[in-house]
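Journal club prep, notes for RB
We'll compare a predicted complex against what the paper describes. Inputs for the 1,6-di-O-phosphono-alpha-D-glucopyranose case:
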Amino acid sequence: MRTQYITSTPFSDQRPGTSGLRKATQTFQKAHYSENFIQAVFNTLGIAGKTLVIGGDGRFHNKAVLQTIIAMAVAQGAKALIITQNGLLSTPAASHLIRLNQADYGMILSASHNPGGADGDFGIKVNLERGEPAPEHVTEAIYQQSLALDGYITTDNGAIDLSELGDTRLGDTKIRIISATTDYVALMQECFDFPAIKRWLEQYRIAFDALHAVTGPYAKALFVDALGVDETYLLNTTPLPDFGGKHPDPAPDRIDELKHKMTEDERIVLVAASDGDGDRNLISGRDGVINPCDSLAVIADHHADIPCLRTLRGVARSMPTCRAIDKVASAQRLTCYETPTGWKFFANLLDAELIQLCGEESFGTGGDHIREKDGLWTILCWLNILAVSGKTPDQLIHEHWQRYGRHHFNRFDYSGLDPESATKMLASLERDLTKYIGQTHHGLTITSAGQFNYTDPTNGETTPGQGLQVQFGSQARIICRLSGTDTRGVTLRIYCEYWQQDITTKPALAGTTATLASLAQGALNISAFCGKTQPDHIV
Ligand code: G16
């Protein structure tokens, strides 16, 4: 094995965003681009004598970057590399493997729900020893390292075969190829009452769409092998580098195949999907998709039915996630925390045992079994609740709204904006924001308005500037922030929430979230700053 020092010059755009470094695939294919970032990670977290978990969601360019990490880690004296067969590894399973094997950290190759392929996106996420996404001070240190590099160290010994399970040695490094699914399935069996779910599945049908992304093998192991679901109810389970040309995003407007499946078979009461790397979830009953904010609230409300959540004491949601869970927390005397967008902010709360359940509007829900959001875990939460209650998802959600009122919630995305203009637009609104307090619009009075600055209750670390928030008491809310996961331009997200207390009468605010969004669009003056008159996508 020959070690090589390759000289390179720094790239100025390697600051990780909401969830790792995410860019166009072609950016990662530039000479030295991936290597420089990997070296910056190694310089920050150390590599000699370290144990790493590595894998990815199977998208185009995964295999090449995986081999790059292996060659660089071996050249720099890693103690062990734990790699899943063929390099396929979901984000939640990666978090679990880091914890289970007491690894020092992990690298997950994924751009999550962004499209894959040569013209799509690629990404590298870094998770630390508790399985959690690297926090801001670590990602910032990686970025600073990336700016100071003059090269990286690697070997020229060629690609490693990742198809056979087993241990080998390369230089000083032990290379362990393991099953991607075995340990994850065992964890799910500890979390849930599989016999009860299996009995329920004898009477009811479910369908799942893996969107040709990473969850196919996991879904087969869980739903078919462990729970006895007929394989024909699982769609698109073969992971493909381009996700079969589809968007690996379980958004409500991308589940036509599942809807068709429901039309074909009336016994299906729940359909579900996950995203590129398996951390997101979509759940739908026959009456429609269950909003992720409602899903989180229902899981919290029925936590006593779920073995791994029985001792729930605290919950958390990201700030833009609607306040449906706050109502449950108040009724059930659970402490409820509000964090900035990004799963990394939940990790300390989970570690400190302040919370055991958390979630985001962006189709992410998770518990304290790992330190990532977990798509299949969330689906199993629902199945466990259904198995215990004997109800359908539609009945559960309707009962929930009857008891707690309904939080209408939508996110309005304006994409591809010029970052400088979008930043100026938000700064301009922020300057004027306090003057809105006390104003009444459409019968709703603004009770507070300002920037969301977060202080982590476990260590006092502050993260300022996480989004502009306008509150109309507990009745309604508007939040504006820029996405941190874009790869081309920037997306303005406007989140609107309106609480309808009595679902048997019409909401007092006509148009609910759309009315709030047009209010925000006017206050931001989006057309003048960014040239857009309407959102590109409404979720
Ligand atoms: C990532 C983060 C989530 C976040 C989402 C959207 O999810 O892990 O915590 O809510 O991005 O972030 P933004 O609004 O900044 O685009 P994923 O599934 O894309 O890794």
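Talking point for the session: The first strand starts at residue 3 and ends at 7.
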